[in-house]
Amino acid sequence: MDCKLEELTALAEKIEAIVNKPETVTDLKNEVLRRRLREAGRKLSLAMEVTGDTVHRINNTQLQLAAARIGIQTGIFNTLAEANGSALTNSTLAEKTQVDPALMKRLLRYYQSLDMITQPGDDAYGANNITRALTSLCATSGVNFFATIIGPSYNALPEFLQKTCYAAPTDPSNCSWHLGHRTDLPPFVWMQTHPEELGYFMPWMATNRDGLGTFHDVLDFEREFCCRDVTDEQTVVFVDVGGAMGHQSIALRQRYPDMVGRVILQDQAVVIERVGESPLPGFVETGIEAMVHDFFDVQPVQGARAYYLRNVLHDWPDHKCAEILANIKGAMGKDSVVLIDEMVLPERGAPWRATQADFTMMASLAAKERSDTEWRVLLDEAGFKIRKIWKYTDECEDCIVVAVPKE
Ligand SMILES: C[S@@+](CC[C@H](N)C(=O)[O-])C[C@H]1O[C@@H](n2cnc3c(N)ncnc32)[C@H](O)[C@@H]1O
């Protein structure tokens, strides 16, 4: 054994001291050290598991999502977070949320056991960083989205893969989603007639990278693509293809408030209608234009400086990506680029957030997250060359890929 017993005892005591007083570390601002600590802690916990821990933890992964959803639905997490550091009793929480006190007790007992809340006394419950995270829009949309849209697709995956002899799914018209949801419609079409689920999906798209960097951290868009001498008010500088409610267009406008030129959001009709009905803050104010466009049709905006695709190509298998890219290529001018904002998976040690996303794509869309080699092959076959790839997150291996036509 490499570590001596006394060293491990001292380590355990140090960790316990931190865990008993988490405020000493939870407001750590150094993001690199923060990530090191949480990854090391997570891996240490897994390395120390005995068989029963592993099996019971994995058996109950679905319960965590279901229980989180109940905490969100009932307002338990909100109520605890709004108590501003004060602990609440079981009966207060039951009264405020209209939950049977007997059920409340069992919920709270479960939440504290997974550190989703704190329990400073026998009948005293408080909020921690996880409780507060579960009150965010990222959590409220994401938990509901995964429970209703992704969950059934995940559940059906073993049966689907067994039936298809463990072939990597590439047919978006027949994948685990269809088996899990008992539908012939693909998810983006299905959601057109399921407004509640679309209402989970849209904010999830806008918030699922909250707290991480953006491509603006590594690429100065205005300087690279919008020099004043070649850009005027009429120049389309940014087309946000499949841009959902336009959160990336808004981020661009806010990053470069003096940038000259037009910014256009494109998405399916049902999404653009939502943008019209309830635009995100900043959308109208910054003059972003919304346009219905199916990216399997000819791209109507010619000669834009940048056609931006964020988390769009990962929704599609290679042959469908080639169609999307061909439509953009046909509209590009001599100064146009395609900006692909996606994960680029490393060959070794891909992070868990990225590998999970890969399975989300597989299960719901017969699609995938791609490695550097896979991106190069896909773009090459679609007639593009990569000018540069910048990585901007470690958590998801998010990168901005600048691609231009080969000739
Ligand atoms: C995974 S989301 C990504 C949204 C946004 N780009 C982002 O990064 O948050 C994929 C988007 O593609 C849109 N979409 C799906 N099929 C489409 C189609 N055929 N034409 C245009 N948009 C489509 C969806 O409505 C959705 O907004």
Automatic annotation (TrEMBL):
<dbReference type="Pfam" id="PF08100">
    <property type="entry name" value="Dimerisation"/>
</dbReference>
<dbReference type="InterPro" id="IPR036388">
    <property type="entry name" value="WH-like_DNA-bd_sf"/>
</dbReference>
<dbReference type="InterPro" id="IPR001077">
    <property type="entry name" value="COMT_C"/>
</dbReference>
<feature type="active site" description="Proton acceptor">
    <location>
        <position position="314"/>
    </location>
</feature>
<protein>
    <submittedName>
        <fullName>S-adenosyl-L-methionine-dependent methyltransferase</fullName>
    </submittedName>
</protein>
<dbReference type="GO" id="GO:0032259">
    <property type="term" value="P:methylation"/>
</dbReference>
<dbReference type="Pfam" id="PF00891">
    <property type="entry name" value="Methyltransf_2"/>
</dbReference>
<dbReference type="InterPro" id="IPR029063">
    <property type="entry name" value="SAM-dependent_MTases_sf"/>
</dbReference>
<feature type="domain" description="O-methyltransferase C-terminal">
    <location>
        <begin position="237"/>
        <end position="385"/>
    </location>
</feature>
<dbReference type="GO" id="GO:0008171">
    <property type="term" value="F:O-methyltransferase activity"/>
</dbReference>
<keyword id="KW-0489">Methyltransferase</keyword>
<feature type="domain" description="O-methyltransferase dimerisation">
    <location>
        <begin position="72"/>
        <end position="134"/>
    </location>
</feature>
<dbReference type="InterPro" id="IPR016461">
    <property type="entry name" value="COMT-like"/>
</dbReference>
<keyword id="KW-0808">Transferase</keyword>
<keyword id="KW-0949">S-adenosyl-L-methionine</keyword>
<dbReference type="InterPro" id="IPR036390">
    <property type="entry name" value="WH_DNA-bd_sf"/>
</dbReference>
<dbReference type="InterPro" id="IPR012967">
    <property type="entry name" value="COMT_dimerisation"/>
</dbReference>
